Amino acid sequence: MTSTAALASVRTADAVLERAWSVLEAVPDPEIPVVSIRELGILRNVSRAADGVLEVVITPTYSGCPAMSQIAEDIAHALDGAELTPYRIETALAPAWTTDWMTDEAKEKLRAYGIAPPTGQCGSGSNSAAEEVIRFAPRPMAAPACPRCGSAHTERLAQFGSTACKALYRCLDCREPFDYFKPY
Asked: Please, what are the domains in the chain?
């Protein structure tokens, strides 16, 4: 292969990867459809493997997340629809997903949808595979603000909300219940 042909091949591969990222940007989370899997940080990577196959790496919000099979199916449907084949979808459990990987846009979309976004940071905020210190002792965190009225006068009703990654809270001012996306 000449250097010009090799350069054209690299540019084509880059265009395919850019298109794949763009297509997957539109894949919504099946449990919270106002945010995409990319905004939540579930979509970890899209790359070209040595065998030329498109590789999509996803990480669940927690290891037992029941939505992962639906997410993989939605990714496959999006890639098939965009004729971005062949591909393979890999699930990576390490490093473990963290709410630090959520985009600011995702947090705002959660708030507008009626779910209090996670507060604070859990680690470095890095979406890399580098080693990080794991803390097993819970950090004291202030109660989340109500996503409806903005009041900080809230109370936790249950450790688990509509899904295991959320807790159920109630605003003591407007009296409305709401989910809080727990920081991990």
From this structure: 3-91 (3.30.300.130), 141-184 (no CATH)
